[in-house]
C-alpha cells in the first residue's frame, strides 16, 4: 500500500466502495484518534481508508518528505486499504466552496458507507474547520448536475473520533474495545517519529505513555484492557444487542 499524495479525486482509478473513510486534518490525527478501531475493522475484513486533508507541515522536527514516509509506515502498520492526501493548506484549512467540493469529490469516488470526522470541539482551527467541512461535503457529495467527478453519493453516517487539543472531560457516545489492536495503534503512532519522539522529553510519562494511559482509561470504563471513544450527533442504530459488551 502506498500513500497517494495530492492525487485529484477525478484521477483516482475505479475502486470498490470503502466501508469507512476516516478524514483527518493532518497525517497522524486518524492514528491518534482511532488507530485501534481502524486496525480492528481491517482485521475483520472491512475496507478502511484515510484521507488526510493537509500535509501537516511545517512542524518543528518534520518536513514534507519525512512526514510522507512516516505516513507510509503508519499506513502499513494499520494495513490500510487506501490512503490519500487532499493537498489542502496546513494551518490555513478553511471550509470554503472550493474545499467542500474537493472533499465531496473524494466521497463520490471512494463511496464510503461511513465517514469519520474529528470531534467538533477543539482548540486547533484546522480541526474545527475540518469537521465543518466534512459535514458539508457529506451533503454536497449527493448533488446531481455538478461537474464533480463520480456519481452522486451520500455516506450513510458521519461519526466523530477524538483527537483534540483541549483538556475536555469528554462524554463519548460509545467506546470500542481495541485491546487486541493496541500494538498496531502504537506502531502507527510511533511511525511519526518527527512528531512524537524527536525532541520530546524522554522522561516518563512520555507522550506515548500518556496515550497508553488514555487508552487504558477508556478500556477500564468498558472492563477491557484498552478502548477508543467516539461521538455521534444522530442516535446510534444497532442491528441487535449482540455486539454490546
Ligand atoms: Zn491535527
Can you characterise this structure?
The chain has 245 residues and is of the alpha/beta class. It is built from 7 helices and 8 strands. The protein has helices spanning 29-43, 64-78, 97-110, 125-140, 182-190, 193-196, 207-221, and strands at residues 4-5, 20-24, 48-52, 82-85, 114-118, 157-161, 174-177, 227-231. It has an 8-stranded mixed sheet with strand order 1-4-3-2-5-6-8-7, sandwiched between helices. Strand 2 (20-24), helix 1 and strand 3 form a beta-alpha-beta unit. The protein is globular and about 55 Å long. The mean pLDDT is 94. Bound molecules: zinc ion. Zinc ion is lined by residues 25-26, 29, 124, 127. Residues 25-26, 29, 124, 127 line the site of zinc ion. It comes from Novipirellula rosea. InterPro entries: Bacillithiol_biosynth_BshB1, GlcNAc_PI_deacetylase-related, LmbE-like_dom_sf.
